[in-house]
Design brief:
This protein is an alpha/beta fold. The protein has 11 helices and 14 strands.
Length: about 325
C-alpha cells in the first residue's frame, strides 16, 4: 500500500478482527523487538470542573514501524453524549520516517485491549470454561465478549453486571446474553470474570471466587483505581501484560505492594513469558489466576501494523 490514509472507526473495527489480531499480539510479544517506553500521563482540567487525563503512548520496532497513540480520557464525556476515551493513532515507517496511516484511536483501543486479555486467557483460563462474567457495561464490553468467545468457544453462558442495572439489561438484550442482578452470585458462578470499570473501590471479592476461576482486570489504569480486593490478589496466581507498566500504574497491584500485602516477586509472568513458553500459565484446574493489564504501546503498534498489512491497497 502506498501513500498516506486516515482509517475511520468503522473500517478499523472491520479490519481488526479476532483471532487475527490476537495472533498478531502474540507474535509481537514473542518477538520482543518492539520498544515501548512508559506512557506519558498528564492530568488536564477540562474547564468544566473535571480533570481529563491525556496519554501519549509511543512505540517502535527497528526496521519496521514507529507509532504513537494520543488519547484523552474525559470522564465527563458520557454526559455530553461522547465516548469517555477519544484518541488518534499515527503509524510511520521506522526506516524513512514517512507517515503511513492514521487511525481512530478508540477503535484501536477497544480492539487491542480485549485481544490482550483473550491472549492471556489462552494460557490462564480453564480450557473447559463455560461461564463468562463481564463486570461493566461500557464501550469495551461487547468487544470483550467477542474476544473471549474467540479463544474459549466452550463458553455457553455470558453474564453482564453493571452498577446501572438498566444499562446492563439493555446491552444484554442487544448481545443476547444475561444481565446479572447480583454481583456476588454472578462471580460465584463464573469461570472467567472480566472487569472493565474505572472503580476506585474493589468490586471483586476474593472470598467469592471459586477454585479454577480466571480473573481479568482491564479497567483500572492508575494507582488509585481498584477492581479487586486484597483477598482476590492474595488468593490468585498473578500475571500482567508488562511488569513495568502494571506494577507502577495498576492500583490492583501497586496498592497492595505499597502496603506489603504482596511483593513484585509474586507476579508469576507477563505476556511475553506466556507466549514464549518461559512460563506455562495455568498449572492446575483448581488454580485461581489473575491477569492485570494497564495497556502498553506495544499492543497499539502491533494492532496498527496489523491493520496496515491487512487493509486493502
Amino acid at each position: 500500500m502506498t501513500g498516506f490514509a486516515h482509517v475511520g472507526p468503522a473500517e478499523a473495527l472491520a479490519a481488526l478482527t479476532y483471532p487475527g489480531l490476537i495472533d498478531a499480539l502474540a507474535d509481537a510479544f514473542a518477538a520482543g523487538r518492539i520498544e515501548a517506553p512508559l506512557r506519558g500521563h498528564y492530568p488536564m482540567p477540562d474547564g468544566a470542573g473535571a480533570t481529563n487525563i491525556f496519554l501519549v503512548m509511543p512505540a517502535y520496532e527497528p526496521g519496521a514501524f514507529t507509532g504513537v497513540k494520543l488519547v484523552t480520557v474525559a470522564p465527563g464525556n458520557p454526559g455530553r453524549g461522547l465516548d469517555s476515551v477519544i484518541g488518534l493513532y499515527v503509524l510511520f515507517d521506522a526506516t524513512t520516517g514517512a507517515p503511513l496511516l492514521s487511525v481512530d484511536g478508540s477503535a484501536v483501543t477497544v480492539r487491542r485491549t480485549p485481544a490482550a486479555s483473550a491472549l492471556a486467557a489462552r494460557y490462564l483460563s480453564r480450557p473447559d470454561a463455560e461461564t463468562l462474567l463481564v463486570v461493566g457495561a461500557g464501550k469495551l464490553a461487547r468487544h470483550v465478549v467477542e474476544a473471549y468467545r474467540t479463544v474459549r468457544p466452550t463458553l455457553r453462558r455470558v453474564l453482564i453486571w453493571n452498577r446501572n442495572a438498566e444499562k446492563a439489561a439493555a446491552l444484554a438484550a442487544e448481545l443476547g446474553i444475561e444481565a446479572a442482578p447480583d454481583l456476588e452470585t454472578a462471580i460465584r458462578a463464573a469461570d472467567i470474570v472480566s472487569a472493565i470499570t474505572m472503580s476506585k473501590t474493589p468490586l471483586i471479592r476474593g472470598a467469592w471466587l471459586k477454585p479454577g476461576t480466571h480473573v481479568d482486570l482491564i479497567g483500572g489504569f492508575t494507582p488509585e483505581m481498584r477492581e479487586a480486593d486484597d483477598a482476590a490478589v492474595t488468593r490468585a496466581s498473578l500475571f500482567v501484560d508488562t511488569r513495568e507498566g502494571a506494577l507502577h500504574e495498576a492500583g490492583d497491584l501497586a496498592d497492595p505492594i505499597a502496603r506489603g500485602v504482596i511483593s513484585p516477586a509474586d507476579v508469576k509472568a507477563d505476556l511475553a513469558d506466556l507466549v514464549t513458553g518461559r512460563h506455562p500459565g495455568r498449572r492446575s484446574a483448581d488454580e485461581i489466576t489473575l491477569f492485570k493489564s494497564v495497556g502498553t504501546a506495544l499492543e497499539d503498534l502491533a494492532a496498527a501494523a496489523y491493520l496496515y498489512k491487512v487493509r486493502p491497497s
